[in-house]
UniProtKB/TrEMBL annotation:
The keyword Nucleotide-binding does not apply. It is found in: Cytoplasm. Catalyzes a salvage reaction resulting in the formation of AMP, that is energically less costly than de novo synthesis. It comes from Myroides albus. GO terms for cellular component: cytoplasm. Pfam families: Pribosyltran (PF00156). This is Adenine phosphoribosyltransferase. Its EC number is 2.4.2.7.
């Protein structure tokens, strides 16, 4: 890559709560050249894999997910929190540090046999990504890769995603 993506990821301490170090990608989104170089790098991670759909998770996975879909010439599928999608949907619960949450996808978003790239900005504990994999597979999609801008490797999210091709541009 012609630039260092870490130069465009800002650390914000104590957000969204005290003790958390948040990785803010808005400087990356604010710089056209860096943003488009990042899209190219994410596509490079795919290699020669064919993709029919890009699935992005709410909400920061939408930014590069839609750009990836446009660049690859395929459709984009949003995965949202409950109550945000207006049509028939399927749901998947996943574990949080304390309790559970849920994600939803339109029931007609992926057809059986379609090749799917799942994208999000960060791989942390892997719970959200694992839930999205379950949604895609329930609809009959075949996951070709999960890719991320960054991975917080100290949280061991890859362990929940064994058996999948998991790629990230940078690791912390």
């Amino acid at each position: 890559m012609a630039f260092n993506i870490k130069d465009y990821i800002r650390d914000v301490q104590d957000f969204p709560k005290e003790g958390v170090g948040f990785k803010d990608i808005t400087p990356l989104l604010n710089n056209h050249d860096a943003m488009m170089s990042t899209v190219k790098e994410l596509i490079t991670l795919l290699g020669d894999k064919k993709v029919d759909r890009v699935v992005g998770m709410e909400s920061r996975g939408f930014f590069f997910g839609t750009l990836l879909a446009a660049e690859l010439g395929v459709g984009f599928v949003p995965v949202r929190k409950p109550g945000k999608l207006p049509f028939d949907k399927i749901s998947q619960e996943y574990a949080l540090e304390y309790g559970t949450d849920m994600l939803e996808m339109h029931a007609d978003a992926i057809k059986p046999g379609e090749l799917v790239l799942i994208h999000d900005d960060v791989l942390a504990t892997g719970g959200t990504a694992e839930a999205v994999c379950k949604l895609v597979e329930r609809l009959g999609g075949k996951i070709v890769q999960l890719n991320f801008l960054m991975e917080l490797s100290f949280l061991h999210g890859r362990e929940k995603l064994k058996g999948y091709d998991v790629q990230s541009i940078v690791s912390y």
